[in-house]
Design a protein that fits this description.
614 residues, Aldehyde Ferredoxin Oxidoreductase,  A, domain 1, Aldehyde Ferredoxin Oxidoreductase Protein, subunit A, domain 3, 3 domains, 6-stranded mixed beta sheet, 25 helices
Length: 614
């Protein structure tokens, strides 16, 4: 197989056993790699459990029966492919949401897994003692991690990279948050790149798997090299000429969106109580570039280079080297909590990387706690000395530490905003969908992203179907953000195409400049398959529907495809979207019709049409 190494490593942590599984070309043609192939495999494991009498709803996200898959795709690690430095990680269940676990990260680790001799790694069972997995030149080994347990992610990455040596060596690991089973714990690779969402770090922690270090010199072969070179050059030219991928992102990073989204009236402020903030520029990408930026830093093989290397030279939040924060982190830790000290936001984000936590869920959970406190719902004694009010930078940074170690009030924050708000009797103040905190776009002023949040399989996720691109940025064309009309079609197309990109596996930012035709040509020239744009979109739709089948087995259906009450009933107080709410039911009805779903479930006819066997 071209574009693939051709091997999957299955590791059973309970027994210490290893098994090599060949990549099945028939499955790859239907699901590509990355997210798609992982979803297919997870469904097969789920059927195995059902055959043994284990009900899907009874699977414990933090139990040994949960299964994790780290995966690459046919474009990952291919020189000249657009932004090919990513990997995807999934689990049967997320501890934060109870639905499927899914996260994505950049850096070096994804390509280097391929170079180490495998396309994917499946993790089963759980170890009794801390271990790390070493994969070097096709040889896998489990080694004691007792000397690493308790260490932060920076130290763990550096120690293992040095221990293994070699040019193409990278470590993905968990920090104290993962070890303490914090529901929003993430996986950190290359010290500052995060597979951030749905608590995949806690799943690793429950399995006593501290890290996976990869190293090697294998390279995927290309089927049609001359044709591929021509296509990849044309795609890279598009990236270099696009205003977002060639100018905005390289110059200011993703945080360039702070002022853009605020000016559009949809930058959630103080736990989504409003959508505009007159002080937003204090934490913008422009301010970061002017006062805190050291340099930009790309992921492996990327020409966009949106990553930021930053520092806070003086003051209580001093940190002399960090990476980020990205737009979502700036929003969650800054705007959502009303903290406008960029130094504090950089420090809080730095600690999220060091301790291994998702800053989106954490910042949103802290903001939820601040509103609960503001309204008098949290007793002062529960806070144990934290002055938890909007705008308190010191409280923000303190909460990051306490959450990672579950100390004091941190034990409540570690649960995520849904459980936190439930504990204090006001679930409506959790700004989440299916238990996953929503990122930085208020759908009262961009209706398509609201439908996407509601119907996203992993929960409140913007990248599942980033309709902000046409609604706000005007790519590939500008559409009216304030109308619900026609949004169902846009959401479905974006969700299906995102499945393709996450299965390729490349960076979603390439889609600002590249479309399905470009990806079809790239994948076809690398693999030797004959894929059209229509074929790829069908693959994306197949992946999305199979993922939904898994959710349905866990008990999720149309009732869960909803939004927080605030967005449905409370009109936006100010700004360009003033007076707006989300007309979700109207959009959802059209969306289900386009999807071929009934009450949030794919119909037998739709599954048969897509060739999904259940």
């Amino acid at each position: 197989m071209k574009g693939f190494i051709g091997k999957i490593l299955e590791v059973d942590l309970s027994t210490g056993g290893f098994k090599d599984i060949p990549v099945c070309e028939e499955v790859a043609k239907k699901y590509l790699g990355g997210k798609g192939y992982s979803t297919y495999l997870l469904y097969q494991y789920l059927k195995e459990y059902e055959a043994k009498g284990i009900a899907p709803r009874d699977i414990d996200p933090l139990g040994p029966e949960n299964i994790m898959i780290f995966s690459t795709g046919p474009l990952t690690g291919v020189v000249g492919a657009p932004s090919p430095g990513r990997y995807h990680v999934m689990a049967l269940k997320s501890p934060l949401t109870g639905s499927i676990g899914s996260a994505n990260s950049g850096g070096n680790w994804g390509p280097y897994l391929k170079f180490a001799g495998y396309d994917m790694v499946i993790i089963r069972g759980a170890s009794e003692k801390p271990v790390y997995l070493s994969i070097v030149d096709g040889e896998a080994d489990l080694k004691s991690a007792e000397d690493l347990w308790g260490k932060n992610t920076f130290d763990t990455c550096r120690i293992l990279n040095k221990r293994v040596g070699g040019k193409f060596t990278s470590t993905a690991c968990i920090g104290p948050a993962g070890e303490h089973l914090v529901n929003m714990a993430c996986i950190i690779n290359d010290e500052h790149r995060a597979a951030g969402r749905t608590g995949m770090g806690a799943v690793m922690g429950s399995k006593k798997l501290k890290a996976i270090v990869v190293s090697g010199n294998s390279k995927p072969e290309i089927a049609e090299e001359e044709r591929y070179r021509e296509i990849s050059k044309a795609c890279l030219d598009k990236l270099r000429k696009n205003s977002v991928t060639a100018e905005g992102l390289p110059t200011y990073g993703t945080a360039i969106l702070v002022n853009i989204i605020n000016n559009s009236g949809i930058l959630p402020f103080k736990n989504w109580q409003d959508g505009t903030n007159p002080d937003a520029d204090k934490i913008s990408g422009e301010t970061m570039a002017k006062e805190y930026l050291i340099r930009k830093k790309p992921c492996w093989g990327c020409v966009i280079a949106c990553g930021r290397v930053t520092k806070v030279e003086r003051g209580p939040f001093q940190v002399m080297y960090s990476e980020g924060p990205e737009y979502e982190s700036v929003w969650a830790l800054g705007n959502d909590t009303a903290v406008f000290d960029m130094g504090a936001v950089i420090k809080a984000n730095h600690l999220c990387d060091e301790l291994g936590m998702d800053p989106i869920s954490l910042g949103s959970t802290i903001a939820c706690a601040m509103e609960l406190r503001e309204k008098g719902y949290i007793p002062e004694e529960d806070l144990q000395g934290i002055d938890l009010k909007f705008g308190n930078a010191a409280a923000l940074v303190e909460c990051v530490w306490r959450t990672a170690f579950k100390t004091g009030f941190g034990k409540y924050l570690a649960l995520g905003s849904r459980r936190l708000a439930d504990i204090y009797g006001h679930p409506e103040l959790s700004m989440s969908v299916k238990g996953l905190e929503m990122p930085a776009y208020d759908p009262r002023g961009a209706k398509g992203i609201g439908l996407n949040y509601a119907t996203a399989n992993r929960g409140g996720c913007h990248v599942t179907g980033y309709t902000i691109s046409p609604e706000i940025l005007g790519l590939p064309e500008k559409i009216d953000p304030l109308t619900p009309d026609g949004k169902a079609k846009w959401v479905k197309v974006f969700q299906d195409f995102t499945c393709v990109v996450n299965s390729a596996v490349t960076c979603l930012f390439t889609t600002f400049a590249l479309g399905a035709d470009d990806y079809a040509s790239l994948i076809s020239s690398v693999t030797g398959w004959d894929l059209s744009a229509s074929d790829l979109m069908t693959i994306g739709e197949r992946i999305y529907n199979l993922e939904r089948v898994i959710l349905n087995k866990y008990g999720f259906d149309g009732k869960d495809d909803t939004l927080p009450e605030r967005l449905l009933k409370d009109p936006m107080p100010s700004g360009p979207a003033k007076g707006q709410v989300v007309e979700l039911d109207r959009m959802k009805e059209e969306y289900y019709e386009l999807r071929g779903w009934m009450d949030g479930k794919p119909t037998p006819k739709k599954l048969e049409e897509l060739g999904i066997e259940i």
